[in-house]
C-alpha cells in the first residue's frame, strides 16, 4: 500500500481552506472593504482563516457577557497591511460611549450601572407625585447649580444614591469636574493606607477641590477621631470656605448624624467636634427627605 505523504495532505488542506475562504460572503466583503485581491487571501490563508473563525463567533454575540475574547470587548480584524489587529466591538463602543463622561470624575465609587444613570432618563410614568417632586428638585438643582448643595436622607433603598449619582453623571456630561465617594469605603481606604502620605493627600485634595462632590452614605461608617477630625472636617471646612457644591446621602437625619459623630468607635465622646461637622453640613446643604418603601424590591 502506497503511503500518503504529509506534504500532500497539507496541500489538500490548504486548497480546501482557500476554496472555503474565497466563497465566504464575509471574506468577500472584507476583500472589497480593504481593496484586496483573491491572491492576497491565498498568500495569507492562515490569517484569513483565523479571522473568519473569530468573526463567525462575534457575529452570533448578543452582548459583552457572552464575549470569550481574552481582551473583553475586542474583536479580531485585519488591517490594510494584512496584519491582525484587535479593535473594540460595537458592544464595547456602545458601553464606552455611555460612560465617556467618567473622564470628568476625579474620584468615582459608582458601579457601572449607576454610572449610566441620568435624571432625564428616569421613567416617572408609574411614580408617585412625591417621587416626581424629588426628581424635579434634583433636575432644578442641576440646571441652576446653586451654591448650596443637597442632603438626601431617608430609609434604606429609597433611592438617595440613585438620585445623587444621576445628578453627578449629568454634571460630568456637562464638563464639570466631579467626585462621587462612598463614605464608609473612603474611611476604610484611608485607614488602610494611612502611612502612604502621597496617596491619601492626593485623594483628599480631589475631595476638597472637586467642583461638585457627592459624599454617599455618610453615617454608615465606624466613627474614629482621626477620620472625623483630620479627614472629614478639613474637607467640609475647605468646601464651605470656598463655596464648593456638595451633596450628601445618608440614612440619618442631621440630629441622628450628630449623635453618630459624637461617639467614636473607641467610646470617646466629643459633642463639640460632632457639632462642628453638622454646622458645616448645614451651611453646605439644604435638607431633602427621601421617604417611602425600599425601591430595591420594585
Quick gist of this model?
By secondary structure, the protein is of the alpha/beta class. The chain is 52% helix and 13% strand. Strand 6, helix 11 and strand 7 form a beta-alpha-beta unit.
Descriptive report:
The protein is an alpha/beta fold and 298 residues long. It has two domains: 6-94, no CATH class; 99-297, Rossmann fold (3-Layer(aba) Sandwich). Helices cover 52% and strands 13% of the residues. The chain has 13 helices and eight strands. It has helices at residues 6-22, 25-34, 38-43, 45-60, 90-98, 112-115, 129-144, 160-173, 183-192, 197-209, 225-241, 254-262, 271-284; strands at residues 74-78, 84-88, 105-108, 149-153, 178-182, 212-216, 245-250, 285-289. Strands 3-5-6-7-4-8 form a six-stranded parallel β-sheet, sandwiched between helices. Strand 6, helix 11 and strand 7 form a beta-alpha-beta unit. The longest helix is centred in the N-terminal third of the chain and has 17 residues, at 6-22. The chain is elongated and about 85 Å long. Mean pLDDT is 89; it is low at 1-9.
Annotate the secondary structure layout.
Elements: H1 6-22, H2 25-34, H3 38-43, H4 45-60, E1 74-78, E2 84-88, H5 90-98, E3 105-108, H6 112-115, H7 129-144, E4 149-153, H8 160-173, E5 178-182, H9 183-192, H10 197-209, E6 212-216, H11 225-241, E7 245-250, H12 254-262, H13 271-284, E8 285-289
Parallel strand pairs: 3-5, 4-7, 4-8, 5-6, 6-7
Antiparallel strand pairs: 1-2
